[in-house]
Amino acid sequence: xxxxxxxxxxxxxxxxxxxxxxxxxxxxxxxxxxxxxxxxxxxxxxxxxxxxxxxxxxxxxxxxxxxxxxxxxxxxxxxxxxxxxxxxxxxxxxxxxxxxxxxxxxxxxxxxxxxxxx
Length: 118
What we know:
Helices cover 27% and strands 36% of the residues. By secondary structure, the protein is an alpha+beta fold. The longest helix has 14 residues, at 2-15.
């Protein structure tokens, strides 16, 4: 019985990958206003520069190593003008990754929707 429990724990640890953040749900403009799916031109988004910076954690909250800042993500992507920011992540018990994803340097592509109140 103990052997079966150990096998189940090992298999759960190897196969237990869960997404913790979804880029489609966390994507926002650089001024922190949310981006709706109807406001993104996905083909143009693929043409923008993309940078990603990750941290690796234990028990989801204790950082082990990495720098997940916006500045690091922009530097890694060679981006001078950050336009969109989002997060991705996965959970592999007991470890997790949290990544900051930035898009930029293509300001003519994404047009922010006009605010009808103004």
